Amino acid sequence: MEKRRLGALEVSAQGLGCMGMSEFYGPGDEAGSTATIHRALDLGVTFLDTADMYGPFTNEELIGRAVKGRRDEVVLATKFAVVREPGADWGLRGDPEYVKQAAEASLRRLGTDHIDLYYQHRVDPNVPIEDTVGALAELVREGKVGHIGLSEAGPATIRRAHAVHPVAAVQTEWSLWSRDIEAEVAPTCRELGIGVVAYSPLGRGFLTGRYTSADDFAAGDVRRTHMPRFTDENLARNLALVESLREVAEEHGVTPGQIALAWVHHQGAVPIPGTKRVEYLEENAAAADIRLTEQQLARIAAAVPADAVAGTRYNADTMQLIGR
């Protein structure tokens, strides 16, 4: 697979989001997930994405076990800041003491002596970003972290952070049906030479065309419980967009998911579609080789107009954490 740069960090042109291997999208399957990670490495999909809050903690442990003996093949990205304590509401911490504490814990769970890309998962409004990035810069100097990143940060915060220490990547949701990044965040990243990592580039799997009803999701799946785009009324409207995308995909002889991923690739981002199944990993990886003309890109975007998507990507409380 081709390589791309996130700031000074070289990664595979497509990564693998590992969150769903442990939580949020139905029951996990460690054996199947491990096989998927191994197949990803064989295909050159070597940029793996996790976070301490996935599980919580168990996703990092799973990845640590899966890459044991192959660590030198992997560009490993994880995140801190979302605090999940048993029996308590989720919180945010970006204070320097917590940054260092979280990094040490992630290193231990991952079974490694360094994290290639360490993101602040969400911006803590109670801690100046300069303080958080200052602590991350110390971890870089100590060799425990290679490069730093932000997730779902706003343009002003990105600029302030980058002034303290180079930010390699900003991770944000970006797909044909989540395009708010295009107004300010993507242009800011391009100006500063910061890479963009696109999570949920398949619209939480919806753009693959595999889902037609909320009943297709397992009990407890966050798409049923926390994401308005998947409520009955919005789902019906959004299905029409997927059918339009399917028509375009058929013209190219590929799947709707592959054409959706190809569109993200052509925006200059590094998509990290998640899956715990080898067959879907292989389908996704093949999308990195699809080349599209400007006319074809416009046709794809017209099939799924940004203003036609029904529902916000998160519920109201979670949306408040984005773009700070």
Order of helices and strands: EEEHEHEEEHEHEHEHEHHHEHHH
In CATH, the architecture is: Alpha-Beta Barrel
Q: Tell me the β content.
A: 15-25%
Distance between the termini: 34 Å
The number of distinct structural domains comes to: 1
Class of secondary structure makeup: alpha/beta
According to CATH, what is the class?
A: Alpha Beta
Helix content: 25-40%
> What general outline do the C-alpha atoms trace?
globular
Low-confidence stretches: none
Within the largest sheet, what's the order of strands? 3-4-5-8-9-10-11-12
Describe the overall structure.
This protein has helices at residues 30-43, 58-66, 96-110, 129-141, 155-164, 185-192, 222-225, 232-252, 256-265, 278-286, 294-303, 316-319; strands spanning 3-6, 9-12, 15-17, 47-49, 75-80, 82-83, 91-92, 115-120, 145-151, 167-173, 195-199, 270-271. With 324 residues, the chain is α/β, with parallel strands linked by helices. It has a single domain, classed as TIM Barrel. The strands form 3 sheets. An 8-stranded parallel β-sheet has the order 3-4-5-8-9-10-11-12, with helices on one face. β1 (3-6) and β2 (9-12) form a beta hairpin. α1 (30-43) crosses α2, α1 (30-43) packs parallel to α10 and α4 packs across α5. The two termini are 34 Å apart. InterPro entries: AKR (IPR020471), Aldo-Keto_reductase (IPR050791), NAD(P)_OxRdtase_dom_sf (IPR036812), NADP_OxRdtase_dom (IPR023210). It holds the Pfam family Aldo_ket_red. Its EC number is 1.1.1.-.
